[in-house]
Amino acid sequence: MPGAIVGELLVRQVTPEELPLLEAMYGSFEPKEVALGLPPHDPERRREWLKALLEGINFVGVIGPAVVGHLAIMPAGQAGELACFVHQDYRRRGVATAMGNAAVAEARRRGLTWLWVLISSDNSTARSALLNYGFHTAWESQGEMKMTFAL
């Protein structure tokens, strides 16, 4: 397995004009485990999903010209729902952590006080990564798990 990506990874906020770069990443995206049907497999549904996410706080991990990861926070009051996806060729190399660090800083700057994420209960990879990052399990029921992170 490749080592951590250091100097070549750029994490930045996304702009609506960069939708084609996100579409390109998701066009070849292969979920490692069940992710509650996200991202949508159908290109048109995926495009609409991405447009909706772009109304929130969005970060991408970029290496060269390619987007290799995407993290979105959808604020609602003082909370924000988090979604994070890393292209399969770049997983377990620090992309999600780097995007998470940038997103947490931005969420705090915008006055959010906590984040939450919903994952499949059987998604052990996401569960482990979120626990290691500092998330806590809020509840688990019927194959889903809600995890929270205080800002």
Q: Concise description?
A:
The chain is of the alpha+beta class and about 150 residues long. It has 4 helices and 7 strands, in the order βααβββαβαββ.
Provide an overview of this structure:
With about 150 residues, the chain is α+β, with helices and mostly antiparallel strands. The protein has a domain of about 100 residues: Aminopeptidase (3-Layer(aba) Sandwich). Helices cover about 30% and strands about 35% of the residues. The chain is built from 4 helices and 7 strands, in the order βααβββαβαββ. It has a 7-stranded mixed sheet with strand order 1-2-3-4-5-7-6, with helices on both faces. Strand 6 and strand 7 form a beta hairpin. The termini are far apart. The mean pLDDT is about 90.
